[in-house]
Amino acid sequence: MRIVVDLNRCQGYAQCVFLAPEVFELHGEEALMYDPAVPDGQLERVARAVAACPVGAVLAGERAGPGGG
Amino acid sequence: MSPQTLFRRITDYAHRADPYPLYAELRANGVVRQEDGSYLVGTYDEVAALLHDPRLSSDRRNRTEPDQRPLPVRDDLPPSFIGLDDPEHDRLRRLTMRSFGPPHSPGTVDALHTGITAIADELAGALHGRDRIDIVDDFAYPLPVTVICRLLGVPAGDVPRVRAWTTAIIAALDFAPEQDPEPLQEAALAAQREMAGYLGSLAEGRRGGPSGDMLSALVNDDGPEGTLTGPELMSTAVLLLIAGHETTVNLIANGALTLLRHPDLLVRLREAPELVPQAVEELLRYEPPVQFLPQRTPLTDIEVAGVTVPRGAPLVLVLASANRDPLRFPDPDRFDPMREHNQHLGFGGGAHSCFGAPLARIETQIALNALLPRLEGFRLAEDPPPYRRSPVLRGPRRLPVVRG
Ligand code: HEM
Ligand code: SF4
């Protein structure tokens, strides 16, 4: 599955990093890095991160745009 | 009824089971000065903006109006960071975060997953064959208290002491208007002192010999920003221990209650556990364990929705009301676990937004996944259940369910 983080919306709350630390990473205090191609073993964690992002910035699957799925 | 009495009515125990009509009245009346001099805000846009407003202080020492419901003030310890402003707040929160989350410890919460699941499964397993369950005492309470004690490094055998101290501390928040607050406050202060001393000496004992828990990290960690002083460590540890379980108990219990009231959704979630993370967010909107934030104070006169709130006045942010604001949430009084764009304020927001939110989230998700299968064939023995006294930390005191 693919994900996209809308970095305009992202406020750096890092909820995603807590919940899926192998997919999302915080560089310094604020800059968010992530792996757009989610490995199968991380799907459940990423689903938790999607639900937890306070500003709905993590888009997964179809919402990640064309070729998302 | 007069909008000036709203705060009194909201805190009145008679309205504990269903404060939501009062919140609708609050939103309709805008910001109104209460008879005790405090100001209440209950609309989403205003509460969300105020959570990010640097002109608001979380430090009660900035109050000029007399405080109707004073928290016990510790004489011998500094306030914990929930009651401090930046830059002090930020320094302490960062130092504490070093052992709990990113960027320094990104894997801490994720690593707790297996342990929490084991505790939840064990508690749920013990419900097997019972005809009557108290969801609070048998499940919702023991899970988070065990988890936070383990995370901090508090021995499991000391949980009863932790419970007694916490009860005394929370009771000082909960007094009824006709009650004399003094004895409760005395007891709360004594409990706080004992708990702080206890946690401080546990941490001291691990200086130089860390045992993988947060108390060890807090006492030994020497990062670029230094370490906590002894008194800071004690205040922080008390905060983590209390904030780390009191609220989560209520979220799990509120969750079970809400789902027992919506049996179709209970079945749906039991059959589709992948919906549970989103359902937990909806619970945080619909029945938030922290109903309002009682400790904000403007540092200068500010205008909120056309009303001037003077410097030094208690300004109460009613999160549970903002969460039901129809201008922000369509059909706000409906519990909809599939709700989209659910930017609820259940964990607050801004600089003080809940430190433990990721842990609370996975605990509650795991708890509901373990509990829901056990509730098959059960119904609420009492609806509404008896509530705890607190209007702030709101949740059932007991949640009895019976077979049939
Ligand atoms: C469902 C469970 C929980 C809820 C609803 C909740 C709610 C909140 C809220 C609304 C605040 C903001 C207070 C303010 O702005 O004045 C807060 C702050 C805080 N919470 Fe939680 N909380 C929960 C669980 C936890 C857990 C598990 C921990 C500890 C591991 C924790 C630790 C804290 C701390 C330390 C603060 C102070 C943060 C600061 O001042 O920067 N909470 N929580
Ligand atoms: S949880 Fe959302 S806002 Fe926070 S860092 Fe991740 S994407 Fe950004």
UniProtKB/TrEMBL annotation, chain A:
Gene3D superfamilies: 3.30.70.20. Keywords: 3Fe-4S, Electron transport, Iron, Iron-sulfur, Metal-binding, Transport. It comes from Streptomyces inusitatus. Ferredoxins are iron-sulfur proteins that transfer electrons in a wide variety of metabolic reactions. Its cofactor is [3Fe-4S] cluster. SUPFAM superfamilies: 4Fe-4S ferredoxins. InterPro entries: 3Fe4S_ferredoxin, Fe-S_cluster_ET. GO terms for molecular function: 3 iron, 4 sulfur cluster binding; electron transfer activity; iron ion binding. It comes from the Bacteria. PANTHER family: FERREDOXIN. This is Ferredoxin.
Automatic annotation (TrEMBL), chain B:
Residues 55-82 are annotated as: Disordered. PROSITE patterns: CYTOCHROME_P450. GO terms for molecular function: heme binding; iron ion binding; monooxygenase activity; oxidoreductase activity, acting on paired donors, with incorporation or reduction of molecular oxygen. Residues 55-77 have a biased composition (Basic and acidic residues). Keywords: Heme, Iron, Metal-binding, Monooxygenase, Oxidoreductase. Belongs to the cytochrome P450 family. This is Cytochrome P450.
